[in-house]
Amino acid sequence: MEINPWGNELIKDYEELFTEFGLQHVPEELRKRLSESRYFRRGIVFAHRDFDAFVKSADKKEKVAVMSGIKPSSRFHLGSKMTAEEIIFLQKKFKAKAFYCVADNEAYADNGMAYEETAPLAVDNVADLLALGLDEKNAVIYKQSECLNVLNLAQLFARRTTLNTLEALYGHQNLGLYLAVLTQAGDIVQPQLGEFGGKKHVVVPVGIDQDPHLRFTRDVAAKCGYVLPSSTYHRFFRALNGETKMSKREPMGILTLNDSPELVRKKLVRAFTGGRATVEEQKRLGGEWRKCVVYELMLFHFEDDDAELAKVKRDCETGKIMCGECKARRVEKINAWLKAHRERRKKAMPKAEKLLSR
Ligand code: SF4
After folding, report:
1. Ligand 1 in contact with 257 (CB < 6 A)?
2. What is the pTM of this model?
3. 15: Cβ–Cβ under 8 A, 6 or more apart, which residues?
4. What torsion do the CA atoms of 215, 221, 224, 225 make, to the nearest 10 degrees?
5. Other CB atoms closer than 10 Å to residue 2's CB: what's the count?
6. How many CB atoms lie within 10 A of CB 260?
7. What domains appear along the chain, each with residue ranges and CATH number?
8. Which residues contact residue 302 at a Cβ distance below 8 angstroms, ignoring those fewer than 6 apart?
9. What is the pLDDT of residues 15-28, one digit of tens each?
10. Helical residues (DSSP H) of 171-285, grouped into ranges
11. Is the C-beta atom of 76 inside 6 A of ligand 1?
């Protein structure tokens, strides 16, 4: 089994990851403790590495940090929203300093986008992050290309890394992507530098596709005497066609936080569902919510109320509701959320510009 951070394949068997890559299950006790987050409560965050060590350290009132970021190659989509909400939750819950990297170097390496192209998207992305609730007073928000710390750390890690190690983890890639990997390791270790209070537990909430970066960073962090970073992993959110993971490379398969109400409607009309071939059949057999991307939208993003979600499930499997009506209701709910978010975002824009112009 391979995990490719730059591909868009779905994971067929999540359980296999535990044996193949040594991931740890999130213990029930911890899930309960973190149940205010629907990602933990609903098992969307399904695995971790040493997250328990991070929690223990925070419980002892030691300084801890949470780190993640975004490649500014497009506007926020639901995948970016998920990571951002996890950072915000962990920042609040554990009083962790949040480090948010705008990975413009990676956008160049992976997508060939120049800094002039990514700069406005970076501001846009940070405005989304603030609108979702990040406390910028307890955060370090920076562009990779302007952060000497991470570039120096990348240099340090490069001395401890061979091409064979990178090829074994990532397959044969161009040197730009390998450089992006080293820089990302720098991003993850940066919170442990002296100017941020020295060595500490850092947790990185990411999608499971990013695990190779974590394995690599843990390896070089150990070689260079830093505390091994912890991580939490969420399941993939599928593209609206239900076939691949949601990726910026396929615009009609993703919802962005800037989509107009009409575009949201259009995208949802085409979305893959668990509906039956005919209305008659659906009334008789019920829909298959387990296969349905529209249900997943509610589960992951737009329905915080578990009782309401259970009702959607019940109405679906008993054939009480047809997909057309179900989608129309979800479109309304999603558009209401997006409208409120856009207003918050507009207010956050000047702050985002200021934060990135420092
Ligand atoms: Fe999905 Fe709703 Fe159709 Fe059920 S009724 S399959 S939840 S769209």
Report:
1. no
2. 0.91
3. none
4. -130
5. 10
6. 11
7. 14-240 (3.40.50.620), 259-346 (1.10.240.10)
8. 330, 333, 334, 337
9. 777 777 789 999 99
10. 175-189, 211-223, 261-270, 279-285
11. no
